[in-house]
């Protein structure tokens, strides 16, 4: 299949001129927003609505007849008055099953909103890597958007972008093929993933060295790195329900 894959190493690379209307975009925020969404999905959450700021999230929760859980972080910490923070460990079935939630985080939910004009929108983490790859395999134009950390490239997101490309194994990765269908950022991500060599070096170690990982360790969330470094332990995708609305649901595979 002729698949073109582009990677935005930070959301700011998605300028308003960037035409996403035909694209399937995959948003990556390994540490930790998209890992939280996958975990919540696995735990039986209802719908997940993302908001760019704290005020909008709180207002939305107040206006919703059956109050959703208010979730997210600022400076890695839970937000005052919110129900849950941004640690996947918090998203247990006991807490989230059959509940809707509203999520706002520093980088992840912003990246989602930067790509809202995409035809199709998914949120990916290492936790649901295989399910995400299966869901986008036949998309002709794939746009992978790394959330980064406060405007900077973050290694953990680039690694997952590379892992997705590696598993898709597009013809452009073969030496003999023309390289037109993989942009240079996609090639950088793929090389980073190959070099990380997760067969000999645990993925958690690479995450610990990344910008996002170092920030989380400093904030006391080191255990989350191991949680977010588990590969394909969740067999479902996180996908936007309707174009135009930042509402997501977990779709179990099979
Ligand atoms: O708490 C998190 O997981 C991060 C905080 S930051 O990257 O250190 O600012 O937020 P996220 O939006 O999930 O990257």
Automatic annotation (TrEMBL):
The keyword Magnesium applies. It holds the Pfam family 2-ph_phosp. It catalyses: (2R)-O-phospho-3-sulfolactate + H2O = (2R)-3-sulfolactate + phosphate. It is an enzyme of class 3 (hydrolase). Its EC number is 3.1.3.71. Keywords: Hydrolase, Magnesium. Coiled coil: none annotated. SUPFAM superfamilies: ComB-like. It comes from the Bacteria. Its cofactor is Mg(2+). GO terms for molecular function: 2-phosphosulfolactate phosphatase activity; magnesium ion binding; sulfopyruvate decarboxylase activity. InterPro entries: ComB-like, ComB-like_sf. Belongs to the ComB family. This is Probable 2-phosphosulfolactate phosphatase. It comes from Stieleria neptunia. The gene is comB.
């Amino acid at each position: 299949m002729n698949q073109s894959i582009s990677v935005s190493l930070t959301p700011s690379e998605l300028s308003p001129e960037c035409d996403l209307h035909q694209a399937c975009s995959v948003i990556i925020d390994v540490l930790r927003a998209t890992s939280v969404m996958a975990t919540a999905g696995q735990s039986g959450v209802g719908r997940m609505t993302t908001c760019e700021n704290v005020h909008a999230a709180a207002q939305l929760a107040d206006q919703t007849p059956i109050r959703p859980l208010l979730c997210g972080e600022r400076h890695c910490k839970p937000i005052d008055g919110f129900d849950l923070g941004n640690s996947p460990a918090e998203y247990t079935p006991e807490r989230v099953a059959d509940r809707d939630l509203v999520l706002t985080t520093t980088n992840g939910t912003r990246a989602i909103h930067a790509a809202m004009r995409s035809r199709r929108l998914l949120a990916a983490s290492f936790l649901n890597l295989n399910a995400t790859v299966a869901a986008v395999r036949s998309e002709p134009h794939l746009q992978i958007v790394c959330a980064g950390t406060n405007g900077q490239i973050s290694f953990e997101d680039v690694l997952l972008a590379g892992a997705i490309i590696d598993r898709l194994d597009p013809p452009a990765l073969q030496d003999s093929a023309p390289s037109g269908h993989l942009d240079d950022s996609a090639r950088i991500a793929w090389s980073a993933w190959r070099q990380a060599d997760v067969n000999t070096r645990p993925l958690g170690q690479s995450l610990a060295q990344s910008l996002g990982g170092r920030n989380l360790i400093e904030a006391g969330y080191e255990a989350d790195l191991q949680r977010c470094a588990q590969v394909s332990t969740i067999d479902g995708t996180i996908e936007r329900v309707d174009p135009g609305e930042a509402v997501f649901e977990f779709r179990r595979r099979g």
